[in-house]
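Q: What does the assembled structure look like for these inputs?
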Amino acid sequence: MKYSHLFAKTTKQPPKEADTINHKLLTQAGFVDQLMAGVYSYLPLGLKVLNNIGQVVREGMDEIGGQEVLMPIMHPKANWVTTGGWDKVDILFKVKSRTEKEYALGMSEEEVVTPLVMSRVNSYKDLPLYVYQIGWKYRDELRAKSGILRGREFLMKDMYSSHTSYEDFQRFYQVAKQAYLKIYKRLGLVAKVTEASGGSFTDKISYEFMVLTDAGEDEILYCTECDFCVNVEIAKVKVGDKCPNCKKGVLKQATASEVGNIFDLGQKYTKDFNFPVTLENREKVYPYMGCYGIGISRLMGVIVEKFNDETGIIWPDVVAPMKVHLVGLDLEDKKVNSQAEDLYKKFNHEDISVLYDDRVDVSAGAKFADADLIGIPYRVVVSKKTTDTLEVKRRDQKETEFLQFTELVRRIK
Amino acid sequence: MKYSHLFAKTTKQPPKEADTINHKLLTQAGFVDQLMAGVYSYLPLGLKVLNNIGQVVREGMDEIGGQEVLMPIMHPKANWVTTGGWDKVDILFKVKSRTEKEYALGMSEEEVVTPLVMSRVNSYKDLPLYVYQIGWKYRDELRAKSGILRGREFLMKDMYSSHTSYEDFQRFYQVAKQAYLKIYKRLGLVAKVTEASGGSFTDKISYEFMVLTDAGEDEILYCTECDFCVNVEIAKVKVGDKCPNCKKGVLKQATASEVGNIFDLGQKYTKDFNFPVTLENREKVYPYMGCYGIGISRLMGVIVEKFNDETGIIWPDVVAPMKVHLVGLDLEDKKVNSQAEDLYKKFNHEDISVLYDDRVDVSAGAKFADADLIGIPYRVVVSKKTTDTLEVKRRDQKETEFLQFTELVRRIK
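A:
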């Protein structure tokens, strides 16, 4: 992609309402555009990042046997009446057709996945089953804020597991927890696992996966020595207490953003929809279900909150919109211009994604500032001074290196 | 993917309400599941087909300079009031929040893309610009029917072009038309291009791309000799007339499904949102816009309507959910079983997608029937009789061939 053709380019003006780093930087760098509070458009570079995060999550789910589907956003009212959610869930968006039919916009998909799974599962032989999707969710939040951290419309991976026994659910609960930690690690994040309340419909404990960031909206207590971590909402301990787990560390409080959760749904939904399965011994049992969420668009915001400096975003390689930001200087010089064009083609030929700043009427300083703002991992400069080695700088390092093209390709791949 | 693990498997029972071949076959083969009239879940194999069609369309748009974005589904009421659509568009779904705020669900995105594009376009130098997305659309249809051909929720590619002059729009209109015809050709379809009325907001003529199929909902007149084609809604000719274009052929009537359209939007939206751009001569002009739609989920239905026989679906290679359907017979025999497993691994190793029917308690007849129903291009059988050549049958041919593994791989790739 040539920068001169790119929609949309960087802007100097920060967005008016921006209350967080992710909102400010993602808008200025041309990744997202706010349509209204909590609702964003994803621009070409932003959509690439969103898809890259989605792909990391997808691979994590496929590895533990997840099967990807895509369920509707528009749900029939009847399904939500069956579970009690129609009246009880205050953040549920409702739609009325011109013939007065009512629908809900999916905020979670138990109401759809339970009848879907059970209608195609005949016996214990088809279980356990792990079905997931990456899809847009809708929540009627009173206050949508913090850029793409808390949206009314947001992209989520939601997986639902079905089991013939509670023990089998508990086994998989641990498998999914490990898969989640691996996903966050691949994204460059360290997530703390807290226990929290189970939400609207269960008194069970759930797992929340928290990344420490001041832009978050949760308060957690964590141990300075061990893995102990708890949401203050349900904590029976307080700041400064000795850790109840290791008895060595002290509890500290921190602000965090929830980037994932796992709920024990028990038999609520299979009982609500009356979907028992037959066991090997011919007994009937209502399957046990779990729900496993990861906020994809929120993760994009959290990554920006964690990886930035005063000049812009610093994307981790695995989610970066492009691998190389090729900065062409002195492009009014025909020789330099054709050298830069050749290099652009060579990167494309090697299947290395590259954003080529081909503008001739823009200063070197402005081009470097844009490269820093956008945050692509490898910056390569071509100018009058360029010889047979390339001037390469990683966005997350201060030093410039001089490398042969083949050596650079080897590093990137 | 092993068939024993696949969610969801084939079903013998056709869906109750199925009024079309696509609804019947896609449901029985386990590709989609109807949640309510006009709203479907895409199951693992169905989602792969949907993504494959989307990818063909994406490549076609990228080739002509399209830039992919993703705009919101939930729109602020104000934008639809600005264009007059809030009161005039009867198929617009409306949402009210708990604080009585009103939103529209996107049925098309002029109301979002116009302010988005114009807020980031400063001068004539940034135009022309072609922005597109592949996203879910919502239409409050009185009668949703014909399986996934006419949905209340459906997947669409919608591109919007912006130009400084009407002439430039007309130039690109032809470029897009050729790109569309190439896309349909890649999908194995022959589309006729008709002229039709321009829809709610313009008296201009638009292009419609029609595929002849009895499940369609449009009636067209076409010439037996030349490319002349017109929607009967605006036709000034009738069946049996001499073709007004070539003066040789005779006009025939046929039922067709609209798989794409191109609208000349003129300056309506740029004027509504008051977004002029500055030309080189410092004059201001309201950009001319075009809208270019392709129904992705509808195309999936149309492809099934066109490519099927009495036993099931026959997917064109480019959209097929998998390349190979490996049918294992005599799997109670350990030697055959390990031979089939090895072959399954070898296909995976070659990055050739394969559905392996590994069931041991199912007859050969039932397995062949499932393979025919699902419609994957290459069926490969492993049984006691298998020697060092493989028994291969293409779904769209009657003859069985015997091939070496490497020869089969070469053909598939």
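DSSP finds eleven helices and 23 strands in chain A.
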